[in-house]
Amino acid sequence: MKHRTFFWFFLPTGLAMFLFIALPIVSVVTQSVFAPHEAVLKTVENCTPLVGCTTETTIDQEATREIREAQPLGRFVGLDIYLDRGHLAIAELREAWNSAETWGDFWDRLFNLPLYRALAFTLTFTFIVTPMLIVVGLMIALAVNSLHRHLKGLMIFFSLLPMIVTPLIGSLILFWMVDSRGIIGSALVALAGDPNFSLKASTGLTWIMLIVYGIWHSAPFAFVVFYAGLQTLPKDQIEAAQIDGATRWQQIKYVVVPHLMPLVTFVALIQLMDNFRVFEPVVGFNASAHATSLSWIIFNDLGGETRQLSAASATSVLTIIGVAILLSPVLVRTWRDFKGK
Amino acid sequence: MASKAQRRPLGLNILIYGFVGLWFILAAFPFFWTLWGSFKVELDFFSIADWTNAITGERTQAAYDSAFTGAAYRGAWIQEEFWRNVINTFLVCFFVVLTSLTIGTLGGYALSRSGYRYTFWLLITALIFRAMPPITLVAGYLLPFFEWNVWGILPTTIIVLVAINQPFTLWMLHSFFQNIPKELDESAKVDGCTQFQAFRHVIVPVMWPGVITTGLFSFLLAYNDFAVTAMLLSESNRTMVPAIAAFLGTTYTEGNVMFAVAAVVSATAPLFVLVMFFQRQIVSGLTAGAVKG
Fold it and tell me: What interface predicted TM-score (ipTM) does this complex get?
């Protein structure tokens, strides 16, 4: 295809991505180094005869508006926003490092800082949910694959539901069930033998609840991909393994899993990216008191009356850096594939 | 006829059916439970006294003389005007799918037919864009949108969702087009067609399976989005998902939770139908990227 033709074909989609993805990134980076203008103060001296003079400091509304309109981005502060308490919190970190006596104490202080708290949950979520969903997905795929033909279709249909459902809605549906007055919640209360038992009350249980939701939501994806992979499994390899006297477990371990390995890598990479952006469950499970994620912090900063654009932008940039680190193995791999061609 | 070596022992069969049964309950039961509960009053669905009330509907019986009531749906759809959000959602989804498929097919086709090095870099850029959480971009939209006075309206959100959709659409359509033999449109060009005519008359008639699959995923992305729609739409233009989140925000007063339950069931129903009719396409779409590696 000629360059010219390619250009015209690609122009609409390229323009859409440039205007609404590339430029916003630039704009986010820019905003993260600017802070809103502080109000301009003016000092007025009131002199009353006999009483004397008093000075009064007031906000100069007009001048404030003027400077805000002249420079809508705010004032340049460099990396200050990145280093403040709401983000990397360098000062607090140093303070904690110097004064903490034990590791436990240091971690406690670290988790009181919003960004580190969110990072801890986001990383825990990503790196527990991703391997678990691969294992669960593989188990479902192996089990469903050995079912009768008619049952397979039905199982695939119902397995797709948790994945296809809107994340916020899926988490609400589960949240209402584990509510202490819901069906699972009351069963847990009966099991625990404590009428005040609630999954929402403790940080650990909240994390477990969110992680279970994450697996429930994403295991179907792994299942469908692995199930498709199982259909292409060469029969003669399995038969050869059987003739060699391999047990079922050995057949799975030495024939099936190696055959599915490229798919496992694929699912792992996609899910790492998707789990890192975990956000809706935190809202749906109303869990922000115990578990926050990076995306949730951005959403929280942007929402409400005071839209803290600078703070949200700085967290956005840090999140993008995190995604880039997670993505780097994929990029290296794709680059190698491309070089190989 | 399975050979003797392939026949499964009874114990293994029990294990397999047990596990499949357990997964079936985990995957399907929450939906049916919520559907059932949405026809009850709050005191039944969230029962303090006895969980079996949610099944028998004791309080619902007392309040409405019947074990089922549509009160939650009436409250959500009429009193809270959820129908507006439903219309907004379908407007957004329709235009997002239409636009992103139109520009996506052109771009994906071009990427699959051009052998130059820059197609690789464009695809890699798209992959990076695909990996970024959409919420990280929202901070970049707000200032300009306020400035130009386009914040809060549906067209802005549609364009943003189309753009966020493009990387995925491009990857998917690119791989579908690569499966269509190049000889098809090249022979058309030999016969004197321009590239666009070759695309229009030769490729378009055979591309529909891939386009429909991609369209399904564009639809799901637009339908399921919460972060972007919640941030970019004003209260009167909300789509379903941010509207449901707003139901929750307005205090857990009696009845209001049931409105949210009814709204949740209403929003799940179209997805249910979608999976029923397009199961095959969804499965093939999920595996398309994977099987090729």
Answer: 0.90
B-chain residues within 8 Å CB-CB of A2? 195
Q: A176 in a domain, yes or no?
A: yes
Please tell me whether residues B155 and B252 are part of one structural domain. Answer: yes
Among the partner-chain residues A16, A262, A299, the one whose CB lies closest to the CB of B135 is: A299
Q: Which chain B residues touch A1 with a CB distance below 8 Å?
A: 110, 113-115, 195
Residue B12 lies in a domain: no
Judgement on whether residues B61 and B111 belong to the same structural domain of the protein: no
Does residue A138 fall inside a structural domain?
yes
- Whether residues B226 and A168 touch (CB distance < 8 A) is answered with yes
Full residue range of the structural domain in which residue B44 is found = 38-69
From chain A, the residues in CB contact with B33 under 8 A are: 177, 183
Distance CA B97, CA A290 (A): 37
Q: How far is CA A36 from CA A83, A339, B89, B181, in A?
A: 16, 47, 35, 56
- Using only C-alpha atoms, chain A has a radius of gyration, in whole angstroms, of 28
**Helix or strand or coil: residue A48?**
strand
CA B79, B83, B84, B89 torsion-angle sign: positive
Residue B54's pLDDT band (cuts 50, 70, 90):
confident
pLDDT per position as a tens digit, A179-199: 878 888 888 888 887 777 777
User: Is residue B107 in a domain?
Assistant: yes
